[in-house]
Amino acid sequence: VQLQASGGGLVQAGGSLRLSCAASGGTFNLYAMGWFRQAPGKEREFVGHISRDGENTYYADAVKGRFTVSRDNAKKTVYLQMNSLKPEDTANYYCAADRTYSGSSYRRNYDYWGQGTEVTVSS
Predict the structure, then answer these.
(1) Which phi and psi angles does 60 have, rounded to 5°?
(2) What is the Cα–Cα distance from 6 to 79, expressed in whole angstroms?
């Protein structure tokens, strides 16, 4: 499975962005999908994940209530809607695919990764 993330950019604090991650080369609805982020000088951290069928989502405490993960299996795409952005949300954002039903907050559980898209939130 190949994953291509897009939609990053520069936004002011309090603004919104929607990231997309398009999949190819596999059966998309057999994979749970996750989003992670990595700020300069920091470890890659979990943001949120969504189950194969889109019925279940789970979020890191830092983004809960502000970010929403969704997916369109017909378009083979997963989305990360980011609202009320803060400067501390600045990072490269990565999507990843996991063969389990629901997904995971652990990086090691993911089989495929996209290349990342950069998000910068100015204060």
Answers:
(1) -70, 150
(2) 10
